[in-house]
Write a structure and sequence with these properties.
411 residues, mainly alpha, 21 helices, 2 strands
Length: 411
């Protein structure tokens, strides 16, 4: 039995109800909705559908923690068993998920790139392609995926938001802002478009505009998933910091950035990033590090994404337990030495120097922090993260270069 999704693409071994459930998932995924987990019931009712199992596995892998890999495994097993039932597009997507599960993010990106050249109507595959391109710091691929979304789905809600963020990350700021506003005309709740426009305003130093913009959009986030709620409020906090309102940024942290899902790695790195920034500006954050560090300890040794690792390392060092941070650094070095050739080059040239700089900065070794971060910064985009997120490391470098300490206080 083969059904089709609302874009006319085939879903092997799926009934009409399953196809409808898949369409609902795609809309939730593109809109950052809060009902993504509904897909699991759909997939469990169609265990022989390879594409559905692949997407269920992808959702778990996107948790970005070791438990996500564990929860993905049953769906990957079913995907493998059923893979022959799907068409070529479905087989390519399944292969991309296989590569992702093996932590070959480069292969996953390339497979999704090839898939969406041939089937640009697969808007969900485009979004997953952008996810990998972003984590690999591949702005050119991010834009390629975004352009396909825009060309095929110019008037489809949420497609323009994908394109707007890709434009911003490629420094095409005026186009990004225009496209982001166009996205919001099509779907007022396009939180990724809200995010893209906020990035433009942050890059251009328009903190007042940015604060007003996100305040205007924020009423639509309450029905969204944790990631986009946290992340857009994180951007709102950055604008308050830029305006010298650190007390309001801390209020946003307490009310919006920490506590919704503390086990979620994205919530953890957002918290580390905000607390680190606030302390560099002399704010006493009290005991807010303690619950964050408690969660980060669970991530030691996972090494799923280097951008996350840099935040985890700082949190452990910030906790003042030198042994834990040193152990994490040793684990990171071991991970770098066993990485595939391309990844090994990244770790040697960028990842390890950045980690050494982060650790030195946390320990108030300004000379070493400046030297190590200075070595890493020219290619730090390869660690993933956005311009705004990576600016944290620029700030630490500038502070260390000026001989200023981390600003930390005892926990």
């Amino acid at each position: 039995m083969t059904s089709k999704d609302r874009f006319g693409l085939s879903i092997a071994s799926a009934c009409a109800d399953a196809a409808s459930g898949y369409d609902a998932y795609v809309r939730e995924f593109l809109s950052y909705g809060s009902k993504l987990r509904d897909l699991f019931a759909v997939v469990d009712a169609c265990p022989d559908a390879p594409l559905l199992n692949a997407h269920a596995a992808a959702l778990h892998l996107a948790f970005e923690g070791a438990e996500g890999w564990a929860h993905a495994q049953p769906y990957i097993d079913r995907m493998r068993t059923a893979a022959g039932a799907g068409g070529e597009r479905e087989r390519i997507f399944c292969a991309a998920v296989e590569a992702w599960a093996a932590r070959d993010y480069w292969k996953a990106r390339d497979l999704l790139d090839a898939l969406t050249v041939r089937w640009p109507a697969d808007l969900c595959a485009i979004k997953w392609g952008q996810y990998h391109a972003f984590n690999l710091g591949d702005q050119a691929a991010l834009l390629r995926f975004g352009e396909r979304a825009r060309i095929v789905f110019e008037n489809e809600p949420y497609a323009n938001g994908l394109y707007a963020f890709a434009l911003e990350q490629n420094h095409r700021l005026d186009e990004a802002e225009e496209t982001g506003h166009r996205a919001c005309e099509l779907a007022i709740d396009d939180a990724w478009a809200h995010h893209a426009v906020a990035h433009v305003m942050e890059t251009q130093g328009r903190a007042k505009d940015g604060a007003r913009w996100l305040n205007h959009c924020s009423h639509t986030w309450e029905k969204k998933g944790v990631f986009i709620r946290d992340h857009n409020w994180w951007h709102a906090g950055l604008f308050q910091i830029a305006l010298g309102r650190e007390d309001l940024a801390l209020k946003i942290y307490d009310e919006r950035l920490w506590g919704a899902w503390p086990e979620f790695p994205q919530e953890q790195i957002g918290a580390v990033s905000m607390l680190w920034r606030l302390e560099m500006r002399g704010l006493d954050v009290g005991d807010r590090w303690k619950p964050v560090v408690a969660q980060v300890r669970r991530r030691a040794g996972e090494h799923i994404l280097p951008f996350h690792d840099l935040h985890y390392l700082y949190a452990l060092a910030r906790a003042g337990h030198e042994g834990e941070a040193c152990k994490f650094m040793a684990s990171l070095n071991a991970h770098a030495e066993t990485a595939p050739a391309g990844a090994k080059d990244f770790w040697r040239g960028v990842g390890i120097p950045a980690a050494e700089g982060v650790l030195a900065f946390a320990n108030d070794d300004c000379e070493r922090a400046a030297a190590s971060l200075g070595r890493a910064l020219p290619a730090l985009h390869l660690a993933g993260g956005s311009h705004a997120q990576r600016h944290l490391f620029v700030e630490a470098f500038e502070r260390a270069s000026a001989g200023q300490t981390s600003g930390r206080r005892a926990i």
